[in-house]
Amino acid sequence: MKKQIVGGDWLTDEHMFYAQELLRMQFPMIDGWQSTLLAQNNGFLPAKMDAIQIHIVLDSHWVRSARLGGTVTLFDCRKAGSHLSSTLTHQLCQVYRTSICESGGNSFIAVNVATVQKQCGSDDCGVFAIAFALHSALGHCLEEIEFDQATMRNHLLKCFTTRNYTPFPTRKVKRACHTRIMNVDVFCSCRMPATYGDMVQCVCDDHVFKDERLFFRFRKDDSTYEEPPNATLLARGEQDRKYWSPDDLQDLLCGAQLVDWLVLRGEVSCREESEHTYLYIHKIRQNLLAALPRWFASSEARGLSQMMSIKGATTKTFS
Question: FRET pair for 238, CA 20 to 30 Å: which of 97, 101, 158, 287?
């Protein structure tokens, strides 16, 4: 872990676990500090009091959230977008489930996105998340301080080595405050955001998923789910792909065009009568073999006939 810290590498979940364990021991009256690995299986427990939590976003970015004094606040050292990612909103709803607001029949968690220092580069987000967590626990206003990014890693290593946090080197700044409030809508008794798609729904249709032992209905069972176009064709192609070698694909293309040529001239019925084109080629193999010389002689097949020999098409595609 030491090499990654001093070497300027991106901090891993091991660093975050160790950092939060030290914070937990140093600030036992603050809830949270849960392992960031819990984001992988929706395993965060609801915080029962003031809490601070480090989150992983999009598998490569660390942010810090807190509920101090009843307000849920997000601190991100990267320029924030117009919305919160689905992975982050799920983590926030799990940790701060007891902070849900009700208004006009809607349920939501109000998240204040604070205006804080932004990192230079892209690999120091973990260091900033730890620094944000420490100084929040100390009661510092992060909107009014700026960290010395050049010394942050050495200071973090010192804290890890001594197993005791001391404030990071900072200076006072006057930063324009543009705190934004983003509402994360939550639904039904599970109090989670609706971002899992619409293939599985609760019986009451209030929410797409409940993380509880409740009744569900599958929309495909009651004919309310519309399958995407060509879904059956794509699934069948994926099934059959394992039976084809790379050499077969070019020959199958040749065979498919040959069937089109025969259908155009009325020598065979339409190809839709067969469930599978490759099986259909075998079914009418005698007609195809007899038609091969005429097909390669036609002007419409001259371009394709240069790609492969008659022998290759006959032995690989039809035998």
Answer: 287
